[in-house]
Amino acid sequence: MDISSFTSVATVVNDASSSMPGTVGNAASLLVLRKAIDAQAAGAAALLAALPQAPALATEGQLGRQLNTYA
After folding, report:
1. What would the pLDDT profile of 18-49 be if each residue is shown by its tens digit?
2. How many domains does the chain have?
3. Which domain holds residue 47?
4. Model-level pTM?
5. Are 39 and 26 within 8 A, CB to CB?
6. Residue 34 and residue 40 in contact, taking contact as beta carbons nearer than 8 Å
């Protein structure tokens, strides 16, 4: 997942990189960036967890034992 295309993340990254190192603003920008990335990671994990599991291959019979045609 490319998070650089999101405008909110790009704005925070630009703010964090343009401020002076060691300032309170820089620390706050990095904290906001980390929280945004954590929130996006949690959302992506929830979406992946919501995907249905693919059915298993058939264990008996002539069809469906070698190739999963459900895909």
Report:
1. 656 677 877 888 889 999 999 999 999 999 99
2. 1
3. 1-71
4. 0.48
5. no
6. no
